[in-house]
Amino acid sequence: MKQRKVPLRKCVACQEMMPKKELIRIVKTPEDEVLIDLTGKKSGRGAYLCGKVSCFKLAQKNKSLDRALKHHVKPEIYEQLAEDFISVEDEFLAVKESSGDE
Fold first, then answer.
1. pLDDT recorded at residue 38
2. d(Cα 63, Cα 92) in Å, to the nearest integer?
3. Average pLDDT over residues 16-34
4. Average pLDDT of span 13-27
5. CATH number of the domain that 74 lies in?
6. 70 belongs to a structural domain
7. Domain limits at 66?
8. 3 lies in a domain?
9. How confident is the model at residue 4, as a pLDDT?
10. How many domains are contained in the chain?
């Protein structure tokens, strides 16, 4: 059987290429909301980050999310994303480990 191509994406903070399922997608919706998209299916412009808090902080420091989303991300949105990122990180890592076992 022909093996399927694994879609690769680049983390906007550390610039490391990884399979799409190993990254967390941040999306700017058409309504100009910036939020975390674990499904990867929400409409809007997306940017990908590693599942590490250090990458999120680096993206915030370098404003790489602003560039990737082509939209100014306000400080209060970064604070909200930081809270969401920390709460989602454990869930994301659990899903990542379970899919790696298969």
1. 80
2. 23
3. 90
4. 90
5. 3.30.1230.10
6. yes
7. 8-92
8. no
9. 87
10. 1
DSSP string, 10-22: EBTTT--EEEGGG
DSSP 41-87: --SSEEEEE-S-HHHHHHHHHHTHHHHHHTSPPPHHHHHHHHHHHHH
Model confidence over 61-101: pLDDT tens digits?
999 999 999 988 888 878 887 887 777 767 776 766 666 55
The dihedral formed by the CA atoms of 85, 90, 96 and 100, expressed in degrees to the nearest 10: 160
98 belongs to a structural domain = no
pLDDT of residue 99: 62
Cβ atoms 50, 13 nearer than 8 A: yes
> Has residue 102 been placed in a domain?
no
SS3 for 66-78, per residue?
A: HHHHCCCCCHHHH
